[in-house]
Amino acid sequence: MERVAIIGVGQSKFGELWDKGFREIVLRAGIDALEDAGLEGKEIEAMYVGNMSGGRYLAQEHIAALIADYSGLSEMGIPSTRVEGADASGGLALRQAYLSVASGLHDVVIAAGAEKVTDVGSEMTTDIMASSADREWEGFVGATIPALYALMARMHFTRYGTTPEDLALISVKNHKNGVLNPKAQFRREISVDDVLNSPFVAEPLRLLDCAPLSDGAAAIILANERVAKEYTDSPVYIKACTQASDYLALQNREDITTMRAVRIAAVMAYGQAGLTPEDIDVVELHDSFTIAELIAYEDLGFVEKGRGAELIREGITSLKGSLPTNPSGGLKACGHAIGATGIRQAVEITYQLRGKAGKRQVEAETGLSLNIGGTGATAVVTIYEIG
Amino acid sequence: MIPRFWRKIKYRYDIVGSVCENCGSKFYPPRNFCPICRRRSKIKEQRFNGRGKVLSYTIVHDTPDEFKLNKPYIVALIELDDGPIITSQVVCNPEEIEVGMRVVKTFRKYFEDGEDGVIYYGTKFVPEKIATNAKNF
């Protein structure tokens, strides 16, 4: 296996980008990544694209070819492949790119993630997201994605005594971080009261427990160690990039206060990296809902099952805590551009490990990202270390 | 959507799932292949009796288009006494529902395709005490 390094990263702003089309935002991220790496473009041997639902958001399939075309990579005829795993699509694209370099097949590849959601209305958006759960047996009975996360939250409340205030603190933290991120969708602080007074989406989850669905794109360039050293003095190495699956519908899972796919992927990742949860300095994780962040604290091994709330109550996961989590603002404040999110998380960890994260910089040599598809049927865990 | 719905009517109108006779696992919705036994699966259809208790629930306020008129409605995970866990709506006052509440199946409309469209029916649940009282009338 080759060592795999991140040599360039880029991302568009996340948010409601009414004046920009899909092609423009993807190109922005790709060009930024090339410039960051100091590449011309012809060095790239393959592309992987994470995109959940171009077919329904844009009535455009064949997204990988479209992006290869508009980024100039079709001119060289390189292979371009779209991968899909709901909102873990970006994480899957990152992993495919990682595997293709780790295997020795390619020297330099690009992984991109992109979604354009605001060209359809919010009803349609909700329906498209519902397709990341079981349409026939969950969607049919009106179990939307927020409703399914609400079922997890209620179970966690009942069994472990977690409270709506605990969840609100997560949203407050992520908004606070988002203020410091120029690429974030929401750059304003909110209070616990704001969260607790926002309307219910699916009880006990309220509007400010839910991440927005956003337009956005991110791109990342991976290379093997030999090539990486030609282009950068500060390569960020991927120590592990693991993926796991679980039952699609919640009703088939043995316990909905945990995401088994996250636990499996995390254990594999720590094993491959030769690290433990205590070694991680900074985390970007999938807070599509506040309860998802709290459950992830536990499933990633940062705290015992049932005690996730302690990390947020004690400020451990705040920017100044010992385990800063979602310094970018996370999905809640930076925005959740579905297929782009998994790549966007890797971009943030790279900035953090290079020491180039501006006002939200934390002290870190080792980072971890977690990207989740739907309600947890797909999970991707990546561990990074500065070279 | 209609053929897709129609194919599953038997399993939606009543709680018909399946059981693996090799390991005893029970499935709803039915599976033709046991994820535990895989090639050794011995699958047989089974009707579950439709009584159980609420494991977790949510009251949905932000609803898909087809459920706008039912807003808010309750979705729950229900552990059946004789089988698996089912995701279903529960018909009762949102203030009454609680974790552990006993419920029993009932046949209800879910939604329809506009005013003149197909009506989609299925199984919902009601509190057991309401169902019991109804029988006394």
Word description of this protein:
The complex is a heterodimer of chains A (387) and B (137). In chain A, 37% of the residues lie in helices and 18% in strands. Chain A has 387 residues and is an alpha/beta fold. Chain A has a 9-stranded mixed sheet, with helices on both faces. The mean pLDDT of chain A is 97. Chain B contains 3 helices and 8 strands. In chain B, 33% of the residues are buried. Chains A and B meet through helix 5, helix 6 and strand 5 of A and strand 4, strand 5 and strand 6 of B.
- What is the percent of helical residues of chain B? 10-25%
The CATH topology annotation of the domain at 49-136 in chain B reads as: OB fold (Dihydrolipoamide Acetyltransferase, E2P)
User: Under the CATH scheme, which class of the domain at 49-136 in chain B?
Assistant: Mainly Beta
What are the segments of chain B in which pLDDT stays under 50 over at least 5 consecutive residues? none
| CATH architecture heading of the largest domain in chain A | 3-Layer(aba) Sandwich
> How far is it from the N-terminal to the C-terminal residue of chain B, by CA?
39 Å
Order of helices and strands of chain A: EHEHHEHEHHHHEEEHEHEHHHHEE
The overall average pLDDT of chain B, rounded, is: 93
Q: So, the CATH homologous superfamily of the largest domain in chain A?
A: Thiolase/Chalcone synthase
User: Can you give the helix content of chain A as a percent range?
Assistant: 25-40%
CATH class of the largest domain in chain A: Alpha Beta
Briefly note the structural class of the backbone of chain A.
alpha/beta
Main sheet record of chain B: 5 strands, antiparallel
Average residue pLDDT of chain A: 97
Poorly predicted ranges of chain A: none
**Widest sheet: strand ordering of chain B:** 6-5-4-7-8
Indicate the multimeric state.
Answer: heterodimer
Order of strands, widest sheet of chain A: 3-2-4-7-1-8-11-10-9
Overall spatial form of chain A: globular
